[in-house]
Amino acid sequence: MQTNKPLPSAIDAEQAILASILIDPLCLVDVAETIRADIFQGQANAAVYRAIIELAAEGKPYDSISVANKLESQGNLDRLPGGKAYIHTIVNGLLSTANIEPNAELIVNKYIFREFIKQMSACVVAAYTAEDATELLDAASGIIYELADKTQSRKAVELGELIKSTDRDIREIYNQEFVDYGYDLGFPEIDQVLTGIYPGDLIVVGARSRVGKTAFMLNIATNMLAQRIPVIIFSLEMTAKQLMYRLYTAKAEVNNDYLRNKYVKMPGEIFESLKAASKFFNDKPLHIDDSPSTGIVNIQTKARRFFAKAETAGVIFIDYVQQIREAGNSENEQVRISKITSALKVMAKELKCPVVALAQLNREIEKRQEKIPQLADLRSSGSLEMDSDIVILLHRDVNNESLEERAKTIINIAKHRKGDGGLYKLKYKEQYTKFVEDENVNPF
Questions:
Q1: Segment 179-211, tens digit of pLDDT
Q2: Residue whose C-alpha is closest to residue 136's, from 318, 347, 298, 1
Q3: pLDDT 10s digits, 288-303
Q4: Residue 335: alpha-carbon gap to chain centroid
Q5: Catalytic center residues
Q6: CB-count burial class (<10 Å; 0-12, 13-18, 19+) for 129
Q7: Are 9 and 41 spatial neighbours (Cβ–Cβ below 8 Å)?
């Protein structure tokens, strides 16, 4: 889509911001959280601002001379019309630093208008040949939310409000009201250690194939739904119907062969148990998205839409991280996963909800004698370990011929940013795809 109209810009405001910072370095504090170099329309202005930020990060002065020297050392001085004289021209043209915040708001708005025109133009072009309206709507929604996230100014919480909130929490804890406590997973021994998962938390559940990551996730989701906590599951491997089969059989404690094997006749009592499971899930705030090749922007967009409809935040489950499509070409798999996990952590904070993300562990665990997974087994997956607040690693001897031995599951709380971790045991009811705590088995 082409137009002869120039893109929105505010070059004078950009120059005024730069001049204000060069004259009064404290002005950078007023705009540092709002303005990035790529928000500037003028190439010269972007180069000057980038040099200012780099000097500030190095703890060096960022006056006119220092910035000019920085640009010269980088070979970027030729980006400025007139070279060093450009910097002196914009500084001499400033009348007052008082308008730096309104100017910052103006250039952010112009940036949003430019990006909106560019990216929505691509959507308009795509609409002429698109076959799936939902994908196009998701792409357009993603553009809007991504622009909002990139340009939203996040101001620090006032101390007075922070103290009031903290005092309220203390009173609730003292009175055992627990209003703001996190969500329990549904396994009492583990819940006592974690004391819940909280809005803003990124929880990584890692295991090798066939151990039961998805079953563990669905068991937690069922417990959340029992408390009427909204749950959205992004399944990048299994279909929504397959997940519902598992949810039903685990809830009803019915052998999953009755649903996956057409040659196994279903008795009447099993049918009634499954009807009871259906009744349980029927009125619960659950959404399962099994769209293939889902990207992080689509996940953010759909989660926002779901929680807006539910009128309250809940929990996001993703099965599994390595399957998420990341826009653009990353240098390697580790860089790709790092970008995704960083985005998931940001999403957890922005949407004020826990994000539970499943992850495959690397194959090295199968080659060593000690099979209990450790944090090191996540390290080939980028920043999963670094970005997460909680890491839960599962292990079962899936190749053991004994059903009883295969059921024994070790849960390694390998990372817990708010408290203790450790090893715990669960029992896996393989025929139901359900984990339970065995009263006869104590934690390590």
A1: 556 788 989 888 888 888 988 899 999 888 888
A2: 298
A3: 888 876 777 778 778 8
A4: 16
A5: 237
A6: exposed
A7: yes
Whole-structure pTM value: 0.67
Enumerate the β-bridge partners of residue 338: none
- 309-328 in b/e form (b: 16+ CB < 10 A) is ebeebbbbbbbbbbbbebee
Does the pLDDT of residue 90 top 60, yes or no? yes
Sign of the four-CA dihedral 344, 346, 352, 354 = positive
Is 211 in contact with 361 (CB distance < 8 Å)?
no
List Cα–Cα distances, 315 to 191, 267, 367, 385, in angstroms: 16, 35, 35, 20
Contact 350, 183 (CB under 8 A): no
Q: Which two tokens stand for residue 406?
A: 């295969």
Token pair listed for 65: 């001379």
Cis ω before 432 (30° cut-off from 0): no
Residue type at 431 in one-letter notation: Q
